[in-house]
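#help-structures

NK: newbie question. if I give both the sequence and a SMILES, will the prediction place the ligand too? trying with adenosine-5'-triphosphate
OV: yes, paste both and it writes out the complex. here, I ran yours:
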Amino acid sequence: MRNDFGSLRLDGVTRRFGGPHGSATALDGLSLEVRRGEFIALLGPSGCGKSTALNCIAGLLPLSQGQIFLDEQRVDQLPPERRGFGMVFQNYALFPHMTVARNVGFGLLMRKVPRAELDRRVARALALVQLSDHARKLPGQLSGGQQQRVAIARAIVIEPPLVLMDEPLSNLDAKLRLEMRTEIRRIHGELGRTTIYVTHDQDEALSLADRIVVMKDGRVQQVGTPATVYAQPESLAVARFMGYRNELPLEATVDGATLRLAGPGIAMARPLAGTVATGPVVAAIRPDDLRFADAATAGDARLEATVEGVEYYGKESLFMLRTDGGVSLFARTVGRARAGDRVVVAAPPDRVLVFPREAAA
Ligand SMILES: Nc1ncnc2c1ncn2[C@@H]1O[C@H](COP(=O)(O)OP(=O)(O)OP(=O)(O)O)[C@@H](O)[C@H]1O
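OV: that's the protein plus ligand as structure tokens.
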């Protein structure tokens, strides 16, 4: 078992599952290099192959094709215990009849670590997850968040070079989820090890990861820093997943240094920047990038619409709009408007993303 590594390399990792109607490819050619110390999030909708990828890395599922390397050593044919990665699952998988301390120490006991060292390491792991006072309790006496911390302590106590987490926060309520997010990031930082984290929650991926791997239908759609994936999705599929909920079917034309976007009842313009699609396009805009025109600045892309409904969220409201051409839109912003009002909404030009329409389906 390796104590640490410089990089983990996945090379065309593929996993197919057989079935009565032929085989289905759950993970299709995943190639990725993870550097020591990185926090990587595998992000994508249910069924996109995230858990399959994690289980292939852990050694719980054999690959149908491809290879996995730790530095120069090929590891994809090693059993899970010889890879020695720490795993944290969604359902904690704690032993209910064992105390917290015994749950955490179990992996060390299996590895025949001497008693004194075992006690010392368990105490250190419990301190790291801030559960020292609960060492003698049974899992059933702990809250969901505390149980999840036990699961994390159990994974890190073996001092794995790589920690794999599969939706570890999905069973917790919203408040605990936020607290545990901070905890997981802190623990990752303190240990200075490498983490691969599976989630379908964009906010979780954005707030935790150094790099995000966006997946769909078993394939990688984009790999990038949270800022890049959020602000510059490379495809409409990634944009949709990152919350670009408004999609306007428009025609794009270039007019000098301006990109004009037009459609039924819509005419928008933004400065031309980089290479953009022309002809039939989809303009994608996040609801929170739209604001009422009185708060807009010169150069914003504007469009007119009728308010169809309003949901109040305190500081902001979600306005449901419809353009004259019949396109539904959402704007999440401050300001007042009522159903039936005519409004002009605007977005900063760099927040209007343009994708070719034929690739949009
Ligand atoms: N043991 C299996 N046998 C057959 N098909 C499977 C098996 N495990 C997963 N699949 C299929 O492979 C695809 C990817 O599944 P996977 O669990 O990796 O997705 P996921 O992104 O983790 O989804 P979720 O977030 O819902 O767990 C799905 O279509 C799933 O139905």
